Amino acid sequence: MANEYQLVAQLPGIPMQTVQRMADGAFIPFDPANRDYQDYLEWLAEGNTPDPVPEPPPPAAPEPVELPAEPVDPMDAATKGYVDGEVSAMTARVAALERRTTGV
Q: What's the pTM value of the predicted model, to 2 decimals?
C-alpha cells in the first residue's frame, strides 16, 4: 500500500493522536498549530487515505527450559527435601480430611 502516511498504533481507550509520514519516518502529532499536520489534513481533503496501523508480529515461541532432574547444589537438595516433606504432610492431611468427610 505505499501511501504517504500511515496511522500509528494507539493505546486502548486513547484516541488516535499521531500519524507517521512515510517519506522520512516523521511522527506528526494531531496539533492544529503543526505545519506538517496541516499538510496531512490537506492530503486527506484531497481524498487520500493513510495506510492502516500495521499488524503486530506474532509473539515469539518461548525457549524450552531444561531443568536438571536432581538437585546439583546442596542447598537445592535441602530445599527439595523440605518441599517433598511438606507435600507428603499435606497429602496425608488431605487424605485424613477426605476419610473424615466421606466416612471411608
A: 0.53
